[in-house]
Write a structure and sequence with these properties.
130 residues, alpha+beta, Inhibitor of vertebrate lysozyme, Ivy, two-stranded antiparallel sheet, 8 strands, globular
Length: 130
């Protein structure tokens, strides 16, 4: 049986055994603004900002524009909205953005995959519908 990673800190009902693709956080992804409890003003604003950026990404696949280039943007939501995978691949190019967002009771956690947190955040802030 293949090994799969369990989603940490997610609320689960007694029948849920959700599994997600595991991505190792990159060395820049330990930013405290994405893991502090919401009662801290700075973290609350950062979490709200991350939540807004993630929420504007439509579920499924769509073509978007970013920095004058076209990307195929994909959002997959799991575990009743508590685990979200976002990936974008430049169409006709080789650029790739990929991250998971885990929504816990305390905060939103951004976990980039193979790219920096700064690159993921810049993309989430800057993409527009094509």
């Amino acid at each position: 049986m293949p090994s799969e990673a369990r989603v940490p800190e997610l609320a689960r009902d007694s029948t849920s055994h959700a599994m997600v693709r595991s991505c190792a956080p990159d060395s820049h992804s330990s930013s405290s603004i994405h893991s502090m409890p919401p009662e801290h003003d700075g973290a609350s604003q950062a979490t709200a900002s991350l939540q807004a950026m993630v929420d504007r990404v439509p579920e499924g696949w769509t073509v978007v524009a970013y920095e004058g280039r076209s990307y195929g943007l994909t959002r997959t939501t799991r575990v009743h909205g508590q685990s979200i995978s976002i990936s974008a691949e430049e169409l006709g190019g080789d650029d790739l953005i990929s991250a998971n967002v885990y929504r816990t009771r305390k905060a939103e956690h951004l976990r980039p995959c193979e790219v920096s947190e700064a690159k993921v955040l810049a993309f989430l802030r800057g993409w527009t519908p094509a």
